[in-house]
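A further point concerns the way the authors explain their paired sequence and structure data. An entry of this sort, consisting of the sequence and the corresponding backbone structure tokens, reads as follows:
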Amino acid sequence: MKFSLIMSTLGRKKEVFDFIDSLKTQDYPSFELIIVDQNADNDILKFIDSSAVSYSLKYLHCPEMRGLSRGRNAGINQADGDILCFPDDDCIYPDDLLQKVFLKIKEENADILCGRAVDKALRSINGRYETVAQAVSRHNVFTTQIEWVTFFKKEVFESGLRYDEAIGIGASTIWQANEGQDIVLRALKNGFTAYYDPNIYAHHEELNIYRPDEKMLQKARGYARGMGYVMGIHNFPIGFAMNYVLRALGGVLIFTMKLNLPRAKYYYHVLMGRIEGYRHGISAVRSGRI
């Protein structure tokens, strides 16, 4: 089996270079890297030309394109692998990741395999994740994956499924996250199977939710809106959505009582974003816009 690693990037250079270099030591031999570069310049191409890589590397320069989901879809159209995945432009894949994914997909006979984000100490970050391996369903879809550690058999995309370009970082809408949960939910509805294993993981910097600046607060609001919106357009009951709203409300109350106002403010934005997203998603379904 061959892997196609599709990286859509904008505004980052060094992190992309680090990822390109890190793949030189991957244990699994059969893969390609497809970079969809949305930057105006072509500095990444210059680095590729000067970097001695032994694996297949494709480069698409799309400076007119914006949005992570749009870039991923462009990369899908160029992929010839049997398994597709979508690394972030500031992550690192462990040397044994592709080998582990290959064996686990074969073992579980899953169409989609999901993992988690970890720091260098292998502590889960940037989301809540289940602690034991299990099948992915509507019930646990928000605690069994992160977009850049999710692997798809090519048949999922051959069926016509693509990322919703109105959802995800850089989209022209306010729904700035959870495009991964959206496409997995649609795949499950179409009869594909998905499996989560916490032993499938990759590395990333942790989001600064402890002393968030204004940019982080805006990101929190956009990410939360995306989550709520995906819940709404997929008709999750209000009780399910309220569980996530109340978690955020709990954060507001706890950190207010601790006089940690920056973190309380962070959870306030998460709270409001989830409510806003869910209301808009439900409204879109009821009005026939979705």
Notes: Residues 26 and 85 are 15 Å apart (CA to CA). Residues 3-204 form a domain with the Spore Coat Polysaccharide Biosynthesis Protein SpsA; Chain A fold (CATH 3.90.550.10).
